[in-house]
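[Q] Does anyone have a clean structure-token version of this?
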Amino acid sequence: MASQTQASEPQAAANTKPNCEGNVVVFKDRSPSAQQHLLVTPLNHLDGVKELSAEHVPLLQEMEAAGNRALDKLSDAYPPEKRIVEQEAWFYEELEQVQGIAVPRCYGLFQAHIEPGSEVSAWKEERKHEFQESDESSESGYGSPKFDWDTPDPNGERVPSFPPPDPTLITILLFERLGERMPINEPLDIIKPGVYEIYNDISRLGIEHLDIRWSNILSVQDSDHQPPEKVCPNHGHAHRWRIVDFDLARKSNGRIDYLDYSAGNWLQRLFMNLPNGVIIEPWDW
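[A] Here you go.
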């Protein structure tokens, strides 16, 4: 299943009304090159809801039930921060040329308001990861909850650079469904060239992923319901792997070979350790 958005301050237009045709809801692929590639969800899965509006949220439950791995990260916090999701959506627009090639196909950014106190099962009440604030994290901003509180006022107090998230607003990026992560405790010689190539594809667009992790590289899912494979114009064949999670990404004017070298250093660490059963994270240096 699919998703998309940044600029200096991201301006994302939320598609709040999926197209309804007969007894199904149809999400159209945002990429013009996708032609007639559609994601179809039966209405009987939505409890009769005909559109996603301020009063209708069951669609979100169906998204989670469909097993979309792209929602794993969003389920870590309730509700997700709208600005973070919109920034990631902006990057998927920037990566439009390689959607379905190096990154997942993106179907759009969707938002809906819920009544205060409502519960949505697609988000867990307990967070998987609780960020621990420290002096280091408050300065770096990497993975830190403090990065929005960086503007001192005249009295020396820290004030938010952005308004706090609206607790009644649900924001979702919808992606195509992907497959498994890279194998562990197995040789990766066959896989490595393809993964280096998809990072080269985004380097050519001047984008640094900056979150190169085992959990952010997923395989293409083999299914009769998947759209036809797209041949990569840079490498002359279809890739079997996709990069996900661009909320930490940034635009760069660096040379392609420099961006490839930077990404390659992180990938090499993964490839050296996964065959030994060790998952290296960006903070494990």
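[Q] Thanks! Anything notable?
[A] The chain has one domain: 19-276.
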